[in-house]
Write a structure and sequence with these properties.
Low-confidence stretches: none
Strand content: under 5%
Radius of gyration: 21 Å
Number of strands: 0
Largest sheet: none
Helix content: over 70%
Shape: elongated
Number of domains: 1
Length: 59
């Protein structure tokens, strides 16, 4: 009986690890795509810098 509970836990742990890996890869791809987009649009980079500065001053 104890072995069955361990097997269910390990499957759940595997699913959690796999989901976390997929989430991490997806986030990394979005960050890379965002940096590529900012390299193409220097105006957008300036806008984001000013927006970050405004957010920092109001916080």
């Amino acid at each position: 009986m104890r072995f069955d509970a361990l097997a269910i836990g390990s499957v759940r742990l595997f699913r959690l690890a796999l989901g976390s890996l997929v989430l991490l890869i997806g986030t990394a791809l979005l960050v890379v795509q965002g940096f590529a987009w900012l390299d193409l649009e220097p105006r957008m980079l300036r806008v984001l810098e000013w927006a970050a500065l405004c957010a920092l001053t109001t916080a």
